[in-house]
Amino acid sequence: MFSFMNKKHLYPALALVALGLTAGIATRSSAARQSVGVSPWGPKDEIGRLNLMTPDSRERVLKRLSGGAVYDLSVEYFIGMPSWQAAGDPPYQMWMTHTPHGDHVADSMRVGSEKSSHVSYSGAAISMYTHMGTHIDALNHFGLDGKIYNGFAAAEHLGDRGWKVTGAEKIPPIVARGVLIDLPRAKGVPMLPDGYRVTRQDLQAALARQHTSLQRGDVVLVRTGRMQVYENAQAYMKNPPGMGLEAAKFLVEEGGAMIVGADNLSFEAFPSELEGNYVPVHTYLLAQQGVPILELVQLEELARDSVYEFAFLGGSLKLRGSDAAPIRPLALPLR
Amino acid sequence: MFSFMNKKHLYPALALVALGLTAGIATRSSAARQSVGVSPWGPKDEIGRLNLMTPDSRERVLKRLSGGAVYDLSVEYFIGMPSWQAAGDPPYQMWMTHTPHGDHVADSMRVGSEKSSHVSYSGAAISMYTHMGTHIDALNHFGLDGKIYNGFAAAEHLGDRGWKVTGAEKIPPIVARGVLIDLPRAKGVPMLPDGYRVTRQDLQAALARQHTSLQRGDVVLVRTGRMQVYENAQAYMKNPPGMGLEAAKFLVEEGGAMIVGADNLSFEAFPSELEGNYVPVHTYLLAQQGVPILELVQLEELARDSVYEFAFLGGSLKLRGSDAAPIRPLALPLR
Amino acid sequence: MFSFMNKKHLYPALALVALGLTAGIATRSSAARQSVGVSPWGPKDEIGRLNLMTPDSRERVLKRLSGGAVYDLSVEYFIGMPSWQAAGDPPYQMWMTHTPHGDHVADSMRVGSEKSSHVSYSGAAISMYTHMGTHIDALNHFGLDGKIYNGFAAAEHLGDRGWKVTGAEKIPPIVARGVLIDLPRAKGVPMLPDGYRVTRQDLQAALARQHTSLQRGDVVLVRTGRMQVYENAQAYMKNPPGMGLEAAKFLVEEGGAMIVGADNLSFEAFPSELEGNYVPVHTYLLAQQGVPILELVQLEELARDSVYEFAFLGGSLKLRGSDAAPIRPLALPLR
Amino acid sequence: MFSFMNKKHLYPALALVALGLTAGIATRSSAARQSVGVSPWGPKDEIGRLNLMTPDSRERVLKRLSGGAVYDLSVEYFIGMPSWQAAGDPPYQMWMTHTPHGDHVADSMRVGSEKSSHVSYSGAAISMYTHMGTHIDALNHFGLDGKIYNGFAAAEHLGDRGWKVTGAEKIPPIVARGVLIDLPRAKGVPMLPDGYRVTRQDLQAALARQHTSLQRGDVVLVRTGRMQVYENAQAYMKNPPGMGLEAAKFLVEEGGAMIVGADNLSFEAFPSELEGNYVPVHTYLLAQQGVPILELVQLEELARDSVYEFAFLGGSLKLRGSDAAPIRPLALPLR
Lengths: 335, 335, 335, 335
Description:
homotetramer, 335 residues, alpha/beta, two-stranded antiparallel ribbon, 20% strand
């Protein structure tokens, strides 16, 4: 049913077999035996399944572009925005370093009273945890037993200012087929319920309803509907729905996804289904399969217009050594 | 010679006339009489010439896409990167809030020793001035006499956490024709000299050499060659070449540019050519013409491959109320 | 009963009269007519009642020191500590910029692997709102109608990086008689109830029970008992008890306090008693009377040992232009 | 000549012997054999020589207080202040989160236009490396081979948010005899020359000239004169004079210092005298001897008034887990 079975999408062929084996081993393991994946793209590989993106794959999607509509898949950053602070991470901050009048009083440019009064300078600074707003997780975000995807050890590659490998700056520009899986629409509800754990069947049913097939190399975005309450941080963050482990496996191993994402805070459902691992979907995707995760993706407009297939274009900020980076992706309709 | 003369690109026609008048008034004025521009798109307009972007304009460029190549126009963020700190603005900082071993010792997730040892959590935070790395200036960045483009007054619209109008979150996704003007190539030098002030003639000569015409609504990116020394912050920042005021006027008033940009730190050349204004190119573009500015754009690869015309695609971070935002734009070749 | 009546403490005499008048005017005014106080120490005065501190006043208290006991009046700073974030202010953050192993991997000192392995470097950075932990409010923290104490106008004296007058760097080292007023002890409760508004009578009764008299120039610290739950930020911050306006006036106008303080988050009780002013105790103390406020003072040990009178010694950080600064004051017993 | 020889100051006697041995071992070792010191105060000790401070030691100094003069030993914090950024640490930042007018526009308190206009709210936030301005280094700041003073291992005790042992919050209030050693005065120069490495003989000569003796438990502050150019960060920081290793050993092992400090950026002279260790004075003091270091101490006024002996009083901020903390110490003259 899915393109995973369609050999023409299997590229590179050898890699696929290896990936399948890796995945198989990983997912059959008990928690105690979980270990990070080995990249089929070689021991130096730092980007995992983003290797599925090639000039050919990009051309295939770009040649199908249709019309001039553009969908903005990102949310706004503002003080008080949703952010995960339970483990002490900083909330979003934005402050003015220059304002027209304040800069005139301070004369920070040392140009004197007349010029500082005539020229009205505004400047702002920000600080944030990298997992805020619409963003992509780099492969180093979660690992197992001190190692990350492809066996890179923190003890060797993690300095005080970030990872020397697999940092967000290694994530290439993304141009790929995007797919929206609209779960609330399929279930006939405005939003998935609090704490709902999405199953493989949920995804299959929604895809069938939409008449959408997944293809190898897709950016697959799952809508839970949570984004409707994004402006209310407490409502957005409290006990969100998310993916179960089997759902994530379905997207990658059967669907062939290159990147997965959703409109909620953390993609996966909590609490963990797996003994001994508090974020099993993250470690499965990032550390075992080499699949980056998009979080807090704005999917409401795509859903409103029933756009289930599109070109996904975007570039995440190249934050050297970082475990994630903000991104403002665009969706362009296909014919 | 340029599309400014080509009426079919003039859209909306009325706006053009108004823009021309506005520009005329502004540029004939002495410094003492400089004042902000009035938007031809109405008193509520917050995005200036970005209004030139329409479904039609986007479709025109998208239908000309050719092949699967993609150019990454952004630089990396790293500690020690170039940044303008002379007026006290903060340099880029990135730090780890979670590391595999450190999080195990701290047990920030309160999962106990076994789980915190098995799951290897990496998390980072950043802080930065918004004018670092590849970024776009919003229209509020520079104004005149306490007002910004379209007459919005700081006293009324600027709160402690940013502008209530024209903030970076108002900048739409950008899909437009992009043009590279390669000045070093035209002049037969590897890089423009220190402090060089680019003239109208420089731009015209380079366009002629490239056989490139500007069109209304373009994103026009000027290469000075400075990006070759980006990794060395002191070399990159010291006395850079930049645009003169007439060069900027040429791009907008004759070339019809929607957005202008360059590969240097501040687009314009210093010191100012205009008595009483220390950043006349910025105030001309942002405050008088409503033209956003892209700075620190990575243009080396486009230049290497002689790609002078392309689709420019990108979305800047939607930092509410901000005067600028990082962006990682992509360039896709056209046929 | 209180030293306010004892003329020998009135210094300078002229100032007192002026202060009394100022206070009288201010407190008889309706909310609509509230305005900032004029300093009896002259139009250039930036420290208000801290002028009461003189070599003589310091000598008087220092010569009464007794023994070698020392009380630490400050709390710890830690991630998750109580902090007022409802208006978007940043919580306390602390992060490592250097760790022994991480610095070895990063070699931030560029000394090579051997040296970076031998020398184990730890370094941390912090960020915080200035009103966190034990701190003192500078007089500019709250004003009225755009002015602060002594008539300094924000429009003239407030630059983007702080006040040019009355900043925390102007606060001198504090050496003065300190007095603890232990309200829970007087009331026979472990802690004042949630939201309790302290009255003039409460203070008088507690002072009587303690056999303590206030003297002109005192640092008066009021114990509510809240500090017992400081480590639990939610418990500490939720609906705290605080001073009513009459209680504050009593301390200053009858008691003669130079500085007032308490062990709670914001000194005053909320909601406001005064129409049109959401922080009337703050504006009364800071803007009208020129009295700095100490908040989050650790008073449990003094209370445990029934030390109601002591030498208060401390220096707040000299944060130029700031509206507050952290301080770790010491209390030394007197004979 | 020095109090080290005066047995009545040796307390506890047993500890001294142990300290001597520790020091002896450490300083006779080659670089390759350097290791951290073992505390004579037991395996749980986290404060090293601060244990020398007792009720008796405090009483001895407090009973000698004379008069009401107070010296402020700290510098101001301001944007552009001296700070060591060569290894990527953040400079001092201070910004406004609330200003009277900006808060009125933003209405961050949600009190409406009238109240936000009447009440004028100023609030600031800061961020800084902990080694800026007048500060004290905690014992964990520098260790050897992954361990700090008293053998605590980073692998076991250092979490992502700081050390679980020996953090700045463990530093007690400091009340001790302070001694100023005025080197420029002794040498008849306004300031020690750039890069000058202070010797044991320099200290001895200056003490003799001053007729000052060191005593066990002193806070010994060495003046180089650099503080005269503190406001000019580049002048202050460039190639400063500092202590040589033998000078540091003299202060501790012969002088009996509890804390050492100076008016320069880093106390010690660079480059290192010791093969294989780029900060041998820091590791000697902090990691081997358990002696905290005060840096950037303002000593100009003490020197001006020839105050060589005084009561040193101060409390550093209790930054949990930190390797240093700001302090604003006071010096009070003794009789």
